[in-house]
Design a protein that fits this description.
The structure is a single chain. 25% of the residues lie in helices and 31% in strands. By secondary structure, the protein is an alpha+beta fold. It has a single domain, classed as Umud Fragment, subunit A (Ribbon). The chain is globular, with a radius of gyration of 18 Å.
Length: 179
């Protein structure tokens, strides 16, 4: 699930717009992904939590298109079940950590959208995280992702997602036979 920054008037967050060049309230053209990455690096370095708006359905039913998510930069202490924000190529994603492994250079996070069938391709280095989701606002409802019940649900979803993702990934490697 990718996302866009929220309305600064509502949340105090920075916002990047794209729109008609002939209107004062809509800056011109789409913003280059390199510029977005630089802006995010400065935001992470600031250490200030920010709100973002979710776009897409890969985290259904937990996160919905249009939800506003509070992101803690770098999100220390990430464990399976946490929802994190990171780049996959030029795309900024918000997915759940379903497993953690190590290599010589540190921790590797295995991620997956809750609504996705398979694991995300590759891994994410813990040091490359943009941040960790700590709360969700859906309309007038505020959901604390750090509460004990939601952390337990997140852990259970991660374990089940990881097992399903690994199983389906292995099954896809075998050719289908017809009887």
């Amino acid at each position: 699930m990718d996302f866009t920054p929220t309305n600064p008037a509502a949340t105090g967050s920075p916002v990047a717009h794209a729109g008609d060049a002939d209107r004062d309230d809509k800056p011109a053209g789409p913003i280059n992904s390199h510029i977005k990455q630089e802006v995010l690096k400065h935001w992470v370095a600031s250490g200030e939590p920010r709100s973002i708006r979710v776009s897409g359905n890969s985290m259904l039913p937990f996160l919905r298109d249009g939800d506003t998510v509070l992101i803690e930069p770098r999100g220390g202490g990430v464990v399976p079940g946490d929802i994190v924000v990171y780049f996959m190529g030029d795309m900024l994603l918000i997915h759940r950590v379903v497993g953690i492994t190590r290599d010589l250079d540190g921790r590797l996070l295995h991620t997956k959208g809750d609504f996705a069938v398979s694991l995300d391709p590759g891994t994410v280095r813990a040091t490359d995280l943009i941040g960790k989701a700590v709360a969700v606002r859906r309309g007038k409802t505020h959901i604390d992702l750090q509460s004990a019940p939601l952390r337990a649900i997140g852990s259970a979803v991660a374990a089940l997602s990881y097992a399903i993702g690994l199983t389906l990934g292995r099954l896809r490697r075998f050719p289908q036979t017809r009887g």
